[in-house]
């Protein structure tokens, strides 16, 4: 499903924007904004639901406890009253459905930006080498990898698959060749024949596992050496993987630290991601009663996630998308937190804020009294 959305929705939109402005960096920005605007109603539903549940949750929990205590011997009445509470405030799960609906599109967008043309595309083929006597009992089944759209021109791309016609189980001493081809059976070499510089998009072959199990040649031919498991990686260069944008040296560049040097463009993108995430979380708490535990989590979480992405292997193009998406999310959160609440929730919120104000005032007064010396008059 994710591949279908990517090939039939996101890449055509990408082609359209690249046709308007021949810059893959700007195409990423435009594609991200279009998808985020299209998903605005769904994400708005999740944000509204989270805001309302944050206000109503203490009241819901109190009501639920009272109902279960009052009707402990009458489950039917208990369910009836609990249903009324959910009808009054809404279900905590209501915000999950919009989130689940939009997830396939967001995953497809993420997958699109991790592949061609923005990054080199790897095909990983797991191979199992068996002794000849065991292989005789195995029924050959063709092996096909997932399809990836490979760009060989600005808007010229093909879905390419890696396959082993006789399957990925071979016998010791046998050879087999990994075929790269389009979904309609056209060989990848045939596709490249129309390119001025076909070597630019030629796949590189390597072993990521099982050096002593198999050997792989430059044309993708596998030779089985000994029984065991191995993994072959065919990597096709991305058209724009080495193209820059603004301060980004290469959209396909991966890693904060490589070859003994710091990639400052990656560091800036990761830092911007952390700042925008922190801003979005701050905005989500606007107008809400203070919650020390939530406030602590909001401060720690952005630092933890940002630290993780410093060493997580994401191309610069994906990080650019994540920063733009966070900025959009922060703006959307700011707009939605200014919306008027339903009357019942506004009343609860006013009570919560008023109660916290009274508690804070009393605590302040208590602290002042506690600091007075025993012989000092109370008014002093």
Low-confidence stretches: none
* Terminal residue distance: 73 Å
Helical element count?
11
Q: Give the helix proportion (percent range).
A: 40-55%
C-alpha-based Rg, rounded: 29 Å
- State the secondary-structure class: alpha+beta
Please tell me what the overall shape is: elongated
Mean pLDDT: 77
Strand order of the largest sheet: 5-1-11-8
Q: Approximately what portion of the residues adopt beta-strand conformation?
A: 15-25%
- The total beta strand count reads 13
The description of the largest β-sheet is:
4 strands, mixed
Secondary-structure element string: HHHHHEHEEEEEEHEEEEEEHHHH
Structure description:
This protein is α+β, with helices and mostly antiparallel strands and 380 residues long. Among the domains are: 2-113, no CATH class; 121-236, no CATH class. The protein contains eleven helices and 13 strands. It has helices at 2-20, 24-38, 40-70, 75-89, 96-114, 132-135, 188-192, 264-284, 292-311, 316-336, 343-370, and strands at 121-130, 143-144, 148-151, 157-164, 169-171, 175-177, 179-182, 204-209, 214-216, 221-224, 228-236, 257-258, 261-262. The strands form four sheets. The protein has a four-stranded mixed β-sheet. Strands 2, 3, 4 and 7 form a four-stranded antiparallel β-sheet that branches. Strands 6-10-9 form a three-stranded antiparallel β-sheet, with no helix packed on it. β9 (214-216) and β10 form a beta hairpin. α8 runs parallel beside α10 (316-336). The protein is elongated.
